Automatic annotation (TrEMBL):
Residues 172-200 are annotated as: Disordered. InterPro entries: HotDog_dom_sf, THEM6_lcsJ_thioesterase. This is Thioeseterase. Transmembrane segments: none annotated. It holds the Pfam family 4HBT_2. It comes from Pararhodobacter oceanensis. PANTHER family: PROTEIN THEM6, PTHR12475.
Length: 200
């Protein structure tokens, strides 16, 4: 189930101060029993869902929502790669950090991470697409609508650029290469097959 009540809590308790374009939004959370997998730790898929609790308030503080509403734009995650390093157990508290990295002609790139006691627990790199009825809206249009004019993106870090290049080589539609066929069992000629003792 989507954590809608936790998202409402984040909205009610949101720090209303405006973030700079590349500043980090920090939110605080608890791993509840319904976030666990069978191994009694924060489920990997739930981790990505809980990142919404940081990303949506981040977009509010950054000033994205109003121009998106005015222009009838949407926002969607167009790709993500998580990395998991430390377990999160039941009732443990942690922080989520959310920040913009930059953009190119199609996507915004941001990163999010979870922390406990100064130690990184996991991290995700995401690309976000602003959309309208015709498809993808150039990120620069959103940045301009947010009041930053023609401000260019900073140069994307090498590790982000490498990820973009790797994604460009990933085939789509996926899984088009057929797996090797399982060899069929050899057929036996009934005329030459050895007879079983005791049978005709």
């Amino acid at each position: 189930m989507y954590p809608i009540f936790r998202l409402i809590k984040e909205r009610i308790c949101l720090d209303r101060s405006k973030l700079g374009l590349f500043e980090t939004h920090v939110s605080r959370h608890i791993c509840w029993p319904w976030d666990l997998d069978p191994w009694m730790e924060l489920n990997n898929g739930r981790t990505l869902t809980l990142y919404d609790l940081g990303r949506i308030p981040w977009s509010l503080r950054l000033g994205m929502i109003a121009p998106m509403r005015d222009n009838r734009w949407g926002m969607t995650v167009a790709g993500s790669t998580p990395r998991y390093r430390r377990r999160v157990r039941m009732f443990q508290r942690f922080e989520t950090h959310s920040a913009l990295i930059g953009w190119d002609h199609r996507f915004l790139y941001m990163q999010q991470s979870m922390w406990r006691g100064g130690e990184a627990l996991n991290h995700v790199l995401l690309r976000l697409a602003t959309t309208d009825a015709k498809g993808i809206v150039a990120p620069q249009r959103l940045i301009s609508a947010m009041g930053y004019g023609d401000q260019p993106s900073p140069e994307l870090p090498d590790w982000v650029q490498a990820w973009i290049e790797a994604e460009a080589q990933r085939p789509w539609p996926p899984m088009q290469v057929a797996s090797p066929a399982t060899p069929a069992a050899p057929r036996t000629d009934p005329q030459t097959a050895p007879k079983i003792a005791g049978r005709g």
